[in-house]
Amino acid sequence: MSEQGHCLICGNPLNHKQVAFCCKKCSQIAYERKKRDEEREEKKQLKEEAAKRKLRKKPKVTFNMVLQGMKETGLSYGEYVARYVKEDV
Questions:
Q1: What is the mean pLDDT of the chain?
Q2: Percent of the chain scored above 90 by pLDDT?
Q3: Exposure string (b/e) for 56-80, b if CB count within 10 Å is 16 or more?
Q4: What pLDDT was estimated at residue 13?
Q5: Which residues, including other chains, have CB under 8 Å from residue 48's CB and lie 6 or more apart?
Q6: How much is the average pLDDT of 45-55?
Q7: What's the Cα-to-Cα distance from 72 to each of 12, 45, 66, 85, rounded to whole Å?
Q8: What does the alpha-carbon distance between residue 48 and residue 50 come to, in Å, rounded to a whole number?
Q9: Residue 25, Cβ density class (10 Å: 0-12 exposed, 13-18 middle, ≥19 buried)
Q10: Strand partners, 74
Q11: Which end of the chain is more exposed for a tag (fewer CB within 10 A), N or C?
């Protein structure tokens, strides 16, 4: 019978029943590598999402900023905060 190829981990020849790995040990090594790579990718994505959230943060609104906005718009404190400050948060 002709060989289909070689083991993806150790390079040993495969027989007609084997597809990618020559033994359970090589299969387990491949599984662990894949799992490790998936965990790394997940951590990378979480870091990227955290960085995006950090960039999206609005500057904090100070009380003086609210007072100035109240004077400019003629609104009460409650009206101003309801209309403008809560939209930014």
A1: 85
A2: 47
A3: eeeeeeeeeeeeebbeeeeeeeeeb
A4: 92
A5: none
A6: 86
A7: 78, 43, 10, 14
A8: 5
A9: exposed
A10: none
A11: N
Q: Tokens for 7, please give them.
A: 């083991």
| Distance from C-alpha of 37 to C-alpha of 43, rounded to nearest angstrom | 10
pTM, entire model: 0.52
Angle at 78 between CA 86 and CA 75, to 5 degrees: 105
- 66 phi-psi bin (left φ>0, alpha ψ -120 to 50, beta other): alpha
Tokens of 37: 């790579």
User: What residue type is 62 in one-letter code?
Assistant: T
